[in-house]
Specification:
The longest helix has 70 residues, at 170-239. The protein has helices spanning 15-33, 51-61, 74-86, 103-106, 117-136, 144-149, 151-160, 170-239, 244-262, 265-283; strands spanning 6-8, 11-13, 65-68, 90-95, 111-113. It is mainly α and 284 residues long. The strands form 2 sheets. Strands 3-4-5 form a 3-stranded parallel sheet, sandwiched between helices. The two termini are 62 Å apart.
């Protein structure tokens, strides 16, 4: 909530009145709902250092943040935006029948309260239920920024526990660095193994496809050679109708030549290597 004098149109409230409302209503309601909480308002801090820095730390680290948006104070909305972008666990409250909520957060749920003894009791009950819900659903976003716009940021915060890193000492940083380096080395090792397996698979696939091409080429070559051989022999038989022995001899010689040509491994191995290299270039 705002901590200084506020004025909105004809409505105004002093810093003292806001302080009284905080002490007697809001803080009291929070403690009634969760007695073990440490409830702190920004101007309660007496530690040395800049007040803005301390507020930011508490906005990031606190399990729960209760923001009173009754009066549209720029500082309140700025700090609320930071909290919404960092982590869930934020509850908005607003005085009933007060100033309408700004458009940008009008869609966000908020708890209405009345500055009366009955209002104190009702606010305490509603805050208690809200804290229980946060405890039961720690990983569920409570605003549209985290839910729709930046789920990766929310997951990163949960996985890295950003809020607890604000006051880390150098030893923790060294341990974290060593741990990260170890993970990087393990990941690099796994990537190297994957690359090797992938190259072996590519090599095997290229070799198998090259063999298939060679088999098909051999079959086509053999069929063409046989057809050509019989064609030539048949024409020679017409020219030499009385030399059937010579015709049979030529048929046999041609078939043996075709078989030997197909089995000529040096040529076919070279041909297979050329085809294999072509497939490797395509795969890589």
């Amino acid at each position: 909530m705002a901590i200084g004098d506020q004025k909105y149109g004809e409505l105004s409230i002093t810093a003292e009145e806001l302080r009284t409302r905080y002490d007697d209503l809001i803080k009291e309601a929070i403690l009634n709902s969760r007695p073990d909480l440490e409830v702190i308002r920004s101007d309660d801090v007496e530690a040395p250092g800049g007040i803005t820095s301390d507020i930011f730390k508490r906005i990031i680290k606190s399990d729960y943040v209760v923001a009173d948006i009754t009066y549209p104070n720029p500082n309140v909305f700025y700090e609320l935006g930071i909290r919404h972008a960092i982590k869930p666990g934020t509850t908005l409250i607003k005085e009933k029948n007060g100033i309408p909520a700004p458009f940008d957060i009008s869609h966000t749920r908020y708890i209405e309260y009345e500055n009366t003894p009955t209002g104190l009791k009702k606010l305490s009950d509603k805050l208690r239920k809200q804290f229980i819900w946060f405890d039961s659903n720690p990983n569920i976003p409570d605003n549209q920024f985290i839910e729709l716009t930046a789920p990766e940021m929310f997951e990163h915060f949960q996985s890295t526990n950003l809020g607890s890193e604000i006051q880390k000492n150098p030893e923790d940083d060294k341990k974290s660095e060593i741990k990260n380096n170890t993970k990087e080395k393990e990941l690099e090792g796994k990537l190297q193994e994957y690359r090797k397996e992938l190259l072996v698979t590519i090599e095997r696939n290229a070799d198998e496809k090259a063999k298939l091409v060679v088999y098909i080429t051999k079959a086509v070559y053999f069929i063409a050679f046989v057809v050509t051989t019989f064609y030539i022999v048949d024409h020679m038989s017409i020219l030499l109708p009385y030399n059937m022995f010579m015709s049979a001899f030529l048929d046999t010689t041609m078939l043996i030549s075709a078989f030997l040509a197909i089995k000529y491994d040096i040529f076919w191995n070279k041909y297979k290597e050329i085809i294999k290299n072509m497939f490797l270039k395509i795969y890589k």
